[in-house]
Design brief:
Blueprint lengths: L4 E4 L2 E4 L10 E5 L2 E7 L5 E6 L2 H8 L4 H18 L1
Antiparallel strand pairs: 1-2, 3-4, 4-5
């Protein structure tokens, strides 16, 4: 199956019909990580991350599982520091 989210020079292309419910998809566009998921009501949710540490870590990976691990590590790190 084609990945439903792609970053192109003119913008991000999203194919929600190819997305699984509650599965996280990502792409990098203009030094930002964009996260997408389709919820149980078929609504498309989008989050934008500009934190350089996260963006750089995600740029180095190709695995969606690794993206979730990077995000989880960052959340845990923030919880420890607060």
């Amino acid at each position: 199956m084609d990945y439903p989210v792609t970053a192109e020079p003119e913008g991000v292309k999203i194919k929600p019909e190819k997305m699984e419910t509650d599965k996280l998809y990502h792409c990098i566009f203009k030094d930002k990580v964009l996260l997408f998921y389709k919820d149980e009501q078929e609504l498309l949710n989008c989050y934008e991350i500009e934190e350089k540490e996260i963006v750089d870590a995600i740029k180095e990976t190709t695995s969606a599982d690794d993206v979730e691990k990077i995000l989880q590590k960052y959340i845990e790190k923030q919880n420890v520091n607060h």
